[in-house]
Structures are given as structure tokens and as C-alpha cells.
Amino acid sequence: MRQIFYYIHTGHRFGLDRFRRAVAIIRELDFEVTLLCNDYRIASASREYGIKKAVGIDSIKNIANIAMQGDVLIYDSPEGNETQLMQMIEYFSVFIRLSDNPNDRVLPNEYLISPYLKGMNVCHAWPVASLFFEENFKKYENVLFYGDDDYERELPQKSAALKTLGIELLMGFYYFSDYAKELKNCFPRIYDSKEYENIVASSKQIITSSAQCALEALASGSKPIFWQRDDYSKNLNTYLLSYSIPVVTHINDVEKLLSQEISYKKIENEMPKIKVFIEKLISKD
Fold first, then answer.
1. Are 7 and 74 in contact (CB under 8 A)?
2. Where along the chain do its domains lie?
3. Backbone Cα Rg of the chain
4. What angle, rounded to 10 degrees, do the helices at 17-28 and 271-283 form?
């Protein structure tokens, strides 16, 4: 019997957006899925997020050491050129790729989940966990979630500007062990990364450099502001703007927006659509 694998590219320089998308999808599926991560740390911690089976591997080259020809692969990673992708498409009976690139194209015999593309073999949707669409979240303070990583320690460098905002901080998964001590004078309260889902859902406003976090916050009724980091992809910016989520590049712009009324567009729960798309492909043979 063929197995279902889900490969993601994460790490202390890439954040966890792909992992959070994977969690959203795996929770929906009625099939057993093995998560493959190029980062061993999140593979070890994945049970805390409801992932029953996860394996850390070094790179996409090692996927074939675990998966067998004819298995199913869901793939969310910027790794791999077209030749490598075509090899994976031939190796797996079903190859489903998530793409946030508005200029992407569907390769022969692959299936795509995309917020931008439409057409044959494409699910025009983007995963945001269903739990964020639950109603009646109690809303509390304004929160900053800079992202799951800050390897260059940029937040302490912005401490003076951040302190004036009077907002709370949600720590990232890959933050340094002494990070809270460095930042305690900038924020009235600091939350551990394990509280991510609850804090995102209960925030009145959230300033974040994670596109996935911005979408999850919007789904829960929060008011997100997306702070574009220089080291992060801009691929989802157009998608964020389609929901009227402000995209800014400087902390001064954040301060101005905190006091403004923004008419956000409603985001729909597309997880049922994604679930049907994937499960039909898995079950068709």
C-alpha cells in the first residue's frame, strides 16, 4: 500500500510558514501522512502540533531514501529546479506542490495548490488552518510576531522604536535562548512560541513578518499588518493586499497604521476545498 508523505523546507533562516501550512492540511486529511522536514528540530517538536509521524531529513535528495516509488508526495519547498521536480513527478504516483509564486506554471503530470493560478490540475486556494475560522475569539492586546526566526538579531536593533508602540511580543520558534532577556524592556509582556495559535487568534491587532500569520490573524477576526522583512520572500504580498492587509517596510509605517481604521476583506475557509482536491487525487487509483 502506498504511503503519503509531505515535505517542507523550514529552518532558522526560513521560518515556519511552510510547517504551519502543513499542519493545517494534515489536520484535515483522513489519511495517515508522514511529515518530512529538512530541519530536525521542528520534526521533533511536530507532535505538539498534532503531527503523529515526522522525520527529519537533510534535503530533498533524501526523500527517496524514505519514500518508495509510487507513493504520494505533497511538496512545499523552494528547493529543486525543474529537472529535479520532473524526476519527483515521475517517481511518485501523485505529486502535489504548493506554490506561492504568481509567475509559476504547472508542470506536466503534477498538481498545484496556488493562491494565484487557475486551470487544469490546479486547486486555486491557500491553506489557513480551520481553527482560526472559529467564531467568538476574545480579543485582547496588540501583538508583534516578527516571525519564527531572527538569526541576525534584528529586533534588539529596533528596540527604541518598538518600545514606543506599547505592544506585546510573541516569540518565534527559532529565537535564541537569551532573547527574552534582551527584549524584556521593549515589551510589556512576552509570550512563548508554544502559545502561537492562541495568541494569534486572540490578538486585537497583530504586526507580523509572517505571511501565514497575517492570514491566520485575519481569519480569526484580528487586524493584521504585514511588516516585510528584507530577508523574506515577497511572493504572497499581492495575495495579502487582495484582503486589504497593509504591507509596510518600516517600523514608522507600522506606528501610523495602528491608529487607523482599515476595511479588511473577509477571508474564506478554503481548507474543505483543499481537502477534497488532495483526497480525490489520493483515492483515484
1. yes
2. 4-127+270-283, 131-257
3. 19
4. 70
Q: What is the 3-state secondary structure (H, E, C) of 260-279?
A: CCCCCCCCCCCHHHHHHHHH
Please state, in angstroms and rounded to a whole number, the distance separating the CA atoms of residues 164 and 267: 31
Q: Is 4-127+270-283's fold the same as 131-257's?
A: yes
Whether domain 4-127+270-283 has CATH 3.40.50: the reply is: yes
Q: Three-state SS across 60-80?
A: HHHHHHCCCCCCEEEEECCCC
Give the residue, 121 or 180, on which the prediction is more confident: 121
Rounded CA-CA distance 251/187 in Å is 15
Residues 232-270: tens digit of each pLDDT? 999 999 999 999 999 999 888 988 898 889 999 999 999
Hey, what's the cell of 163?
518600545
- Sign of the C-alpha dihedral computed for residues 149, 170, 131 and 122 taken in this order: negative
Backbone angles phi, psi at 246, to 5 degrees: -65, 140
Q: What's CA 212's distance to the chain center, in Å?
A: 4
CATH number of 131-257: 3.40.50.2000
- Distance from C-alpha of 163 to C-alpha of 268, rounded to nearest angstrom: 35
Beta bridge partners of 73: 5, 95
> Cell 496556488 appears where?
114
Q: Residue 50: is its pLDDT beyond 70?
A: yes
